[in-house]
Amino acid sequence: MHTSPAKLLILIALSLVILVEGRTVLAFFGINIPPLETALIGLVVIATLVIWAIRPLRGSPTKSE
Amino acid sequence: MTALFVDEYPAEARLVKAAFLSSFIAFGIGALFGIIQALHRTDIFRFIDSIKYYTVLTGHGVFLVIAFTIFFLVGLYQWAVTDSLERGSVDIRFTWLWYGLMAIGSLLAGISILAGFLDQPPMVLGSELRANVLFTFYAPLEANPLYYIGLALFLVGTWLAGIDWFRTWWAWRDENPGKRIPLRTFMVLTTMIMFFLGSIGVIVSILVFILPWSLEITESLNPLLTRTLFWFFGHMIVYFWLLPAYLLWYSVLPKLSGGRLFSDPLARVVFILFVLLSTPVGIHHQYMDPGIAEGFKFIAMTNTMFLLLPSFLTAFTVVASMEHGARQRGGEGRFNWLRALPWRNPAFTGMALAGLIFAFGGFTGIVNAGMNINYLVHNALWIPGHIHAQVGTATALTLMAGSYWLVPQLTGNRLVGRQVALFQVVLWFVGIVFMTNSMFRAGLVGVPRRTAEPQYQGFDYDVGVGSMGELNAQLALGGTLLFISAMLFLVLMLLTVFNNDSEPIVDGTLPPALSGPEDSPQVLDNLRLWFGIAFALVVLAYALPLAGIAAQSGLFGQDIQPFPVSSEAVIYFQFGLEYVGAFVT
Amino acid sequence: MRIHQYEKLWIVGAMILIVGFIVTITYGSVGLGITMIGDEEETIAPDELNDDEQFGEPRVEQVGENEYAAYVVAQTFIFQPDPIEIPANNEITFHVTSRDVIHGFYVPGTNINAMAIPGQVAELTVEFDEPGEHGLICHEYCGSGHHTMEGLIVVQPEDEFDLTELSAETPDTVTSGEQVQLNATVENGQLEPLETTVDAEIGDQTFQQNITVDGNSTQDVTFTAESTQLGVGEHDWTVTVDDYEETGSVEVVSNETAAAEGGEES
Fold first, then answer.
1. Taking the domains of chain C in order of start, what are their residue ranges?
2. Chains in touch with C (≥3 Cβ pairs < 8 A)
3. Looking at this predicted complex, what is its ipTM?
């Protein structure tokens, strides 16, 4: 585990929030992301976070920030 | 571990529990109404008549922003006064008296609202029992007198609560001559001074104008006057919802972070600023109203902008206190200390996320306050977006998080489902962002608030990005997440109350601030002075506009007929046709 | 009072931001001239609206060169007039009041936004750059039918906009041998004189007359046809002025019929 379940939960929540608000900000600059793509990006981000979190710590642990 | 609140002050704890119970019942009903609205107005699932939507809307407003918030406030403040003065009420019977008045008042108002669901409402006090007038009850829309009587009793109860806490403080002062007012008591007393001053408007509006008019004692009223008197109260009440959350952020959050409050003097300054500025700003809700001169709107605008200051100060102090706590827990680095915070604790996480949303919502508030920018958003869905970020999250989420910390101390029972509680606060955070983001965007393209069906025949909204369908889906999704979160909270509270054979694992002691009251001048505790200045500011901001409104069309207006809101839409059409007929012929 | 160094900086920053916001808003008011709805207008009692010079007949009228006034009454659950027709590229001042409860006056997606309060008159001046149609909605809860309360603002191209009104009439029946008189009235609500042509058709006879209607006044035109030429029977008539058209019919009855009917009546 790279992080605790509690922090993973909050990271997922934060990434969803940034996704929703970020999409609005991007639309303001003329970059439109359709809902379906947004949902896909969300899933990918969550999957990445989960994989990163449960990946066992081995060798030289990389510091991911 | 020190003794639990419930063991030290069993009588007061009983009252706090009763207040929280009332608060949570109102929260449950209000949340249920919330999801009905989210699904109805987006046209995703409509199972009630659109006319009954306004019953739901009135209930959502009154149950949440009057009953839920204020019942929680009186409970929390009773705890804060008792715990920080280390003494109980002067007379616990008086304490129960005000709670009783509030409970009866909210029951009367609640019954008159819920009667809106009946097809054949009973006749009470000479008219149909109904109150589909929303939480703002703008005359000449008319509710049953019972609704106004209920609201008045509730307000009287809240006044007596304030007086009760002042009595407790006076008794303490006699026992502890020369001592500074403890911070939490200071916050309670200043909040109540603010409330006394600001609620004068709505009390006059109800008792002098609307109630006699609804009982047909007076024949007419001045709709702009009652509306202005409502907003005299209406922005102060916003801070009345918010300050319990502030009290928790200042007193409990630093401790939960593992440290101490950064500065006690600045906390006092913040509360004094709210006393001074939260009432003379109400006209910023009436930027679009005729009959109020532009100059008064400008004054309200500048006052409102200065009201940002206490919130900015709070942001600093709260974040600084959290950082201090994190470093006490071994956090290091410029931003890495964030990882050392107790994210696993639902009470902490809930408050921290609520603070984050509050900062974001605050910026949307600046748009509302910006007089001429307000043309774009006034009464658009943007406004409920702002409200749900502020009272619906900064306050509601903080109160829920605070309950996870406080309820075990009030019941002596261990909190059930800590992990679920963490999930609950995070779910609220995600839900509110989904919902408010959609509300902000829909508001900017002109979707109005307070309507059962924002879909019109003659035109379509010009949605620049995405589609109405997408905005609606996002709003409904957010509303659903919030509803699930609310129900989770209530279930956890219920289970905790019945979790009898357990020991709570909370430490109820609150450490003193890093910079204590001795660092602040004595004048901060001079409540008479602050009341005097606040009073003068209110007179400056309101005397002339109110006099102007009364002079234009009279204190009692020009023959304004009441409009009982009834399910019989026919009455309206008859009335309308009569007039159309009159002017055609 | 001890205040931490960072906190002092923060307070100064916050104050700069606050003053900055106030300056921005003030610039909007003074520099850009975005005025707020104020208290310039007289109050008016809702039950006197029908007798009021302006709100008795809610309408659009021209008040100056490139300036129009629109008098709008909001009531459960309609706006009057509906639709509100106005020209593009002109200053339109809306005067909005309510006949009953508090309503809203809002064109979604624009800054046309006001409260309609019984007793009060909201005044706001706007200009539409482009012709087109805009929905007008009530955005303050006003009762059970609130969500049905909408109107329409039709912005017409400036050169196509007029405030012309046409009315026309003939007698229902004319006895053969008498003249059929078609009286048309052209009203010009604008300030500039209106030069136009009135076309009329009675049965198979056509007429044409050029007229000039002064600003804010009316002009009567009469067309006369010989009933004998039309013949006995029902004849349709039409009057057109610009895009306006009035139609009706006149019946020419023979002498005997007229006499017989007259006899029955007496």
1. 1-33, 46-160, 164-258
2. B
3. 0.91
